[in-house]
Design a protein that fits this description.
By secondary structure, this protein is an alpha/beta fold. It has five helices and twelve strands.
C-alpha cells in the first residue's frame, strides 16, 4: 500500500505453588531482581564497547512501474535527517537508495555476517511503501519477518539491542481522530539461553492497518518528529523507549493532514512501538 502524501503448548509456573511435580521444578528463577534495585545500571545495556555499531538506512523513493507504487517525494529529506542523527550518535551509517527486495535482504544478510563483538548495538531504517507485514523494494514486496531474520540470528548481536525503524504504510485505513474533552476531576553468563526475539525493538511510523503520512517537501511526520526529538540534548539521558513515547506524542498531537481531497483531509496518525528490549537503552553520543 502506498504511503500517502500530505500536500502541505508448555507453560512454566514460577509463582509459589505453581506447576507440578518434578524434582527440577523451581518456584522462581535465579535472577538479579532478587538482589538489585530496579533502577540499577545492571538493567541498562552496555554502551561502552569500542564501537557504537552499524546502522543501515534503505531509502526507496522510486519504484518499477509494474509495482503500481508512486514516487515517494520527500523521502530523501527523511533519509538525510536519519543519516545525520545516527551519525551524531556514533553509528557507522550506510545509506542505500532504491533497493530491490533482494538487495534489501542481502544488506541484512551481509550485516549479519559481520563481527559485531566490539559494537554496542545494531540499527536499520527502511523508508518505503508498505502494507500489512510487508515492505516494498523497488520491484516488489518483502515480508518484514524475512527482512529482519538474519539480524535476529546473528550470534555476535545476541544480548545486544537491535533497532528497526519502518517509515511505511501498514494498510489503507485513515485515522479520523477523536475529540478529547477536558478530564473531569550485558555480557551474558556462559551457557545462558535467551529468546531469539529478545533485545529487538520495532518502531513503526503507524499502527497496523493504517496509512502513514508524508509531506512532499518536509518528509514524513514520523521521521520529522523522531529526528527533531533525538536532536534535543536531554534525550541523551533518556531511555530510548521513553524517547519514542515522546515521538508518538508529537506525531499524534502536532500533525494533521492538509489535503485537497475531503476524504484525505484533517487525518491523524500515531506511531507503533513494539519493544522486546530487556534493558534500558541510552543512545547518547559515543565518547
Amino acid at each position: 500500500m502506498s504511503d500517502r502524501v500530505d500536500n502541505a503448548g508448555h507453560e512454566d509456573y514460577l509463582s509459589a505453588g505453581g506447576g507440578g511435580g518434578g524434582d527440577d521444578d523451581r518456584d522462581e528463577l535465579d535472577s538479579p531482581f532478587k538482589t538489585l534495585s530496579l533502577d540499577s545500571d545492571e538493567f541498562a545495556y552496555n554502551m561502552k564497547h569500542p564501537k557504537r555499531g552499524k546502522f543501515v538506512i534503505i531509502n526507496n523513493r522510486t519504484f518499477n512501474p509494474e509495482t503500481g507504487m508512486n514516487e515517494r517525494s520527500g523521502s530523501d529529506v527523511d533519509a538525510a535527517s536519519l543519516y545525520q542523527i545516527f551519525l551524531r550518535f556514533g553509528f557507522d551509517v550506510g545509506l542505500y537508495h532504491n533497493q530491490t527486495k533482494d538487495q534489501m535482504l542481502r544488506l541484512m544478510i551481509s550485516a549479519a555476517g559481520e563481527n559485531h563483538s566490539d559494537s554496542d548495538c545494531f540499527g536499520a531504517a527502511v523508508l518505503s511503501h508498505g502494507d500489512a507485514d510487508v515492505l516494498y523494494g523497488t520491484d516488489g514486496i518483502i515480508a518484514i519477518d524475512n527482512f529482519i531474520a538474519p539480524i535476529k540470528s546473528c550470534r555476535t548481536l545476541v544480548g545486544k539491542p537491535k533497532l528497526f525503524i519502518f517509515q511505511a504504510c501498514r494498510g489503507n485505513e485513515f485515522d479520523n481522530g477523536i475529540f478529547q474533552s477536558d478530564a473531569v476531576g550485558e555480557d551474558k553468563p556462559k551457557g545462558l539461553v535467551i529468546p531469539m526475539e529478545a533485545d529487538v525493538l520495532y518502531a513503526y511510523s503507524t499502527v497496523p492497518g493504517y496509512f502513514s503520512w508524508r509531506n512532499s517537501s518536509k518528509g514524513s511526520w514520523f521521521v520529522q518528529a523522531l529526528t527533531q526529538i533525538l536532536s534535543r540534548p536531554e534525550t541523551e539521558r533518556m531511555d530510548f523507549v521513553r524517547v519514542l513515547t515522546r515521538v508518538s506524542h508529537a506525531v499524534a498531537h502536532q500533525f494533521e493532514s492538509n489535503a485537497s481531497r475531503p476524504e484525505m483531509n484533517r487525518k491523524k496518525q500515531v506511531p507503533s512501538v513494539v519493544s522486546m528490549l530487556t534493558k534500558d537503552l541510552y543512545l547518547g553520543p559515543k565518547k
